[in-house]
Amino acid sequence: MAGLSVAVVSTVLSRLDLGNDALKLCLGISVTVAVGALFLAALFARRITKDRRQIAQSEERFRRAMKDSAIGIAVVGLDGSILEANPAFAAMLGYSREEIEALTFFQITHPDDLQIGRETMDGLKAGTVDAFQFEKRYLRKDGKPVWAHLAGSVIRDEKSGRPLYLVSQIENIDARKQAEARIAEAETRWNFALAGAGQGVWDLDMRKGGTTYSSTWVRMLGYADGELDGDPDHWLTMIHPDDRQTVAEADRAHLDGKTPFFEAEFRMRHKDGHWMWILDRGKVIERDAEGRLIRAIGSLTDITRRKEAEERLAVSATMLADEKERLRVTLQSIGDAVICTDAASRVTFMNPVAEKLTGVSGGEALGKMLGHVYWAVDEETGHRIGVTRPTIGSQPPSDQNSRAVLIRRDDTRCSIRQVVSPIINERNEFCGLVIVFQDFTDARALQRQLAHAAAHDALTGLANRSSFIRTMEELVDQARKDGTTESAGGGGHQFMFVDLDHFKLVNDTGGHAAGDALLKRVAEAIRGVLSPEDIVARLGGDEFAVILKSGSAARAKIVARSIIDAIAGLDFTWDGRPHLIGASIGLAAIGANCGEVDEIIASADAACYAAKAAGRGCVSVAPNGVDNKTEPPEPLAAAS
């Protein structure tokens, strides 16, 4: 072809009758152009073939990469249609490749996340977006949502720049999202727990340049999140000046490895200026090769309320200690003996007076059972009284108090007056006893003397008129309750009114001293005739009264005559002069039908007057009896 072209050119030029040189020049140019064109054509053809081969190889590599990739890859049209999808993407959503390539991205996107994809598409079409990445939820074939991370780019026409399609990588991040949700939930619970407990967390990391604090904590101090983060020494400036040295020493001791952890209580300033009490605990968890701090973590606890409570308790404890000391001094100083026990009846306290009365020292008594130290009994029955656990709110019976006797370990005794009170705590539980007692020996002796004096005649020692009347009233009341209707001829109680005869002469001749001495002899004579259960009293002057507790009126007359005989037989001499006296007796029954006490006494008195009128030295029965006459004494009448 090239030779033919040269020949043609030569023929043409020869016909044009050109010069030899011009012809040669033209011929050379033509040959050169022809050869160059042929070379360029061959080179271009070879280049096209190579590019096609490279494109085919690239496409093969891309398709193989799509097929073998563990991450989903999809080629997406501008309308959202899935032009091509790899097996990983189809499997992620539970489809086959054919099924998923028949859908659009809008159809497999969670309804709540559709706007994310649409905004990206709008940006692509407008030319404002060349690459993209975001997280969204897709819907599996079975309807379950799956979180995925989508990253891709736009493929555009090289000449016009018009977008052609999208190539996207879709990574399944559902497990990560679920883990994040669980972490977020746990963190929410953790933050709630920290807030509820008044706690925060700090994290000192020198690699990150300082300290970070939990949001719970900074809010407790009145700051915004992150406002306190940074400078690792800033927290020291917020500590109360009086606490800084102690805190700094504790911090340094831990940093130097002298303590296994850091712990301190101090006051920290709130942002508004007031002070909060803080409990700070922390520990170094990482050091460098030279032992320098790299990281430490700790907790901060708001203990303001606890500190306020402790302060109140400290004040209360001080007051309680003062009160306890006052009580101790009081118990040590008072004149009453005091013994305290616990719920098991073990002695917990004894004051000096108790030691003296019991004969046991406090050191020896403490911890011992109460019975080892203190044993109180009723002086009449001998039964232990007043030291067992009493009913709450009860007090020991008064008769036990009046008859309590303390028996010491050496068997000596002393009369005491005691009060036993239970110790009850705020839960209404029995905790022990407090026994307060006094030495009542002298007082009780005086009490007995006064009681005896109040009921007995001072001269003769017999019952006096008032106590005798009370006894009579009791007997009359009992007779009425029993329905006893005794008469002078029946059984039951009998009353005698005894009046001395010729007693005035003794007083006139010997004086009152002689009369008093004789009255004592008369009292002894009357008591000597009666049985122990019978009652005898001096009503006043030379008048006596007797109650026979049992026996008929006939027996009463026999006893009355024995009294008359005993009095008449007294051998009484005063200042060398003998004196003879006698007695007249009026007798009356005590029964339900005998009237009141004064009526019975009046009846007996009238009978006694009748006996005197009959010649003295005899017995007369009251008119309500079976006898209405006076009886002269049989042996005494001759003697007088």
Automatic annotation (TrEMBL):
GO aspect biological process, one term: regulation of DNA-templated transcription
Coiled coil: none
Domain called GGDEF: residue spans: 491-624
Positions of transmembrane segments: 22-45
Keyword Cytoplasm attached: no
Cited InterPro entries: Biofilm_reg_signaling, GGDEF_dom, Nucleotide_cyclase, PAC, PAS, PAS-assoc_C, PAS-like_dom_sf, PAS_fold
Pfam families in the cross-refs: GGDEF (PF00990), PAS (PF00989), PAS_3 (PF08447)
Alphabetically ordered keywords of this record: Membrane, Transmembrane, Transmembrane helix
Keyword Membrane on entry: yes
Ranges where the PAS domain occurs: 58-122, 186-258, 323-368
Origin superkingdom: Bacteria
Domain called PAC: residue spans: 132-185, 262-315, 400-452
Gene3D superfamilies attached to this UniProt entry: 3.30.70.270, PAS domain (3.30.450.20)
PANTHER family linked to this entry: DIGUANYLATE CYCLASE DGCE-RELATED, DIGUANYLATE CYCLASE DGCP
Protein name: PAS domain S-box-containing protein/diguanylate cyclase (GGDEF) domain-containing protein
